[in-house]
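Q: How would the structure tokens look for this protein?
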Amino acid sequence: MTTPVPQTQTTADESLLPRLLKVAQHLSEQKDVPRLLDALLREACYLCGADAGVAWLYDDAREGEGLRCLCRAPGAAQFREASRWFRPLDAGGLVEACFQVGEPQTVVLDKQPLAEPDRTVLETLVPDAQALQLWPLYNHEGRVTGVLQLLYRKAVPRNLQRLEHGHLIFQSMLTYGGIALSNLSQVQELKELLDAFIKVLAQAIDAKSPHTSAHCQRVPVITELLAQAACDDEGNFADFQLDEEGWYELHVAAWLHDCGKLATPDSVLDKSTKLHTLHDRIDEVASRFATLRAEIRFQYEKESLQTPELEPSLRERMEQEIDALTADLAFLERINRGGERMPPDDQQRVKDMAQRTWTDAWGQSRPLLTEDEVKNLCIPRGTLTPEERQIINGHMDVTLDMLGSLPFPAKLKRVPEYAGGHHEKMDGTGFPLGLTREQMSIPARIMAIADVFEALTAKERPYKTPLKLSEALAIMQRMRDNHHLDPDLYQLFIHSRVWRRYGEMHLDPVQLDVEDGSAFG
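A: Here is the predicted structure in token form.
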């Protein structure tokens, strides 16, 4: 039988009024939904004398919308699913009915048959329950967003005996709790939306160039591993700690650290070889070598007809010249892929090669390599010319402009500084602002190490083979010695074995050639 909740008033217990004020303050201090619901349920059970309580929230943002049990109060000890979202209720149950009607209800169980969903819930929570109460929760718009279910092993008290005007005060507490819950849920939903947005943005950046794919997704992994090591350190970083808000601020910055690459031209961002523009111009160079080979063979055949007695020596000369051409082309194809270092002798060989000529389809003599091709092929590191390097470095200016234009709340105000510092160097020779170590925060210096290590060990860069841990750590050690990386954080990076833990998660087994990193400390 369902009956209205009693409205009877009783003698006041003045000691509970300060408690209610503390409850209101306690509810307002909660930062996540389960804790807020737990506080609300505990007070509801106390005021009503209930043996257990369960909070049901309506969820329409997940697959299979409906009322889901999110929290239970002490007393339902057998309930093991308190921290998980699940939906054991079908339409027609008591909780569903309270949610739809929006009115509190008291149910005496031995006088009313229960539907299967309700029996399942009660058997899970309080098998010997004799009665229950249902209280709707309202948001600030007056819309029902959930239901509090209180369970009794004995009869429901005729009134809320602990308070004068008990029902009114209790209903006010529920209203306050419902509004606090609504506000917290909206904050959480906006946070989830921001998280999803920054990850979509990072995925778009990575998808823009297959040669840097997953970079924006892997840098946060290294960043957070090293930041945790700094928080755990009792030496140089004993005073460094991140609270929940600090961790989220670093998380957002790490995911957005390369957002400026959205404005970088594809021809530069996607330049996989030195001669790449809209396509790889090495094929054009190879066609000229094919023309030279044809000219050499033609010359051999012509001279052999004129002087047959010299044919053996002419053939030998032809084969030597063709072998030399083949070796030169193989050399150009190799250096076109770029690398960590191109020796001066190799650069001179390119310039010497450019002095050779070939005959085009119109019979005109042209240099084997153009001036622009020589400039690009002689790039000492990587595949970018100084001008192209300047263009791609400009993504940091764009990153700072983009992030600086966003109205970050106070809890995220350092996101631009963290994200914008990962190309700065400790001696002030980095970019975009030329900051020194003393001018940079610890999180910004952490991100600089994370960005370098990911780039060195990345498997998608076509201009270089994936570096093994020994090679990457040796390069980072030199960068530390040259005052490019923070020495204390680099030492922590080595000693905490962040490099190894990341490697086991994201690198190929062949890259994991170092077990003890002490030689690189």
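Residues 166-208 form the longest helix (43 residues).

The first strand starts at residue 2 and ends at 3.

Upvote if useful.
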